[in-house]
Amino acid sequence: MTQTRAFGDPTVTIRPPAAGDREMIARFAQGVPPHDLLFLARDIRQPKVVDAWLNGAASGQLFSLVALREGQVVATIAALSDRLSWSPHVWDIRLLVAPEMRSKGLGRFLLDAAIAASTEAGATKLTARMTPDQAGAITLFEESGFRAEALLRGQLRDSEGGLHDLAVLAMDPALQAARREAFGE
């Protein structure tokens, strides 16, 4: 699934990540504000984390896309489920968009693709995590049907030792689809 779309100027190529993307993803992760990485369960600035992500995408254990502009990663999304847990029906969505590409529709496009792919794979609940001060991300997810489900105080520790809260949003994709059909949303 490779496609080229306009999200501002120039266009962006969206495709699944490939093994050869490791260095581009590492550069992207280094360029994202550190605070924007706090919600991720793992630090994607670490090569072994990127390798695990790429291996998971290649093996079909998770859904993932990268967005490239002028040969550089400008956004990533992953949707994954722990199929060996008590909650294999729950998929977590992790979206990162470079600051210069925000508010252009790229995040929404990637989020819609991840919702569709995870629902098709059997997800009956979707979750997303972020810090409460990430207003743009919260708005994007809420507009897609996610609702606040939990606030975990002091859950995250940044590299300087500061504590941050973690907001957990969730949605039921079948319920959201029924609402869209009933109310034309």
Major sheet: 8 strands, mixed
CATH superfamily: Gcn5-related N-acetyltransferase (GNAT)
* CATH class wording: Alpha Beta
The tally of domains stands at 1
End-to-end distance: 27 Å
Low-confidence stretches: none
What class do helices, strands and sheet pairing give? alpha+beta
Taken in chain order, the helices and strands follow as EEHHEEEHEHEEH
Radius of gyration from CA coordinates: 16 Å
The percent of residues in helical segments reads 25-40%
What count of helical segments does DSSP give? 5
Write the layout of secondary structure elements.
Blueprint: E1 3-6, E2 11-15, H1 22-31, H2 47-59, E3 62-69, E4 72-80, E5 90-97, H3 106-120, E6 125-130, H4 135-143, E7 147-157, E8 163-171, H5 173-183
Parallel strand pairs: 5-6
Antiparallel strand pairs: 1-2, 2-3, 3-4, 4-5, 6-8, 7-8
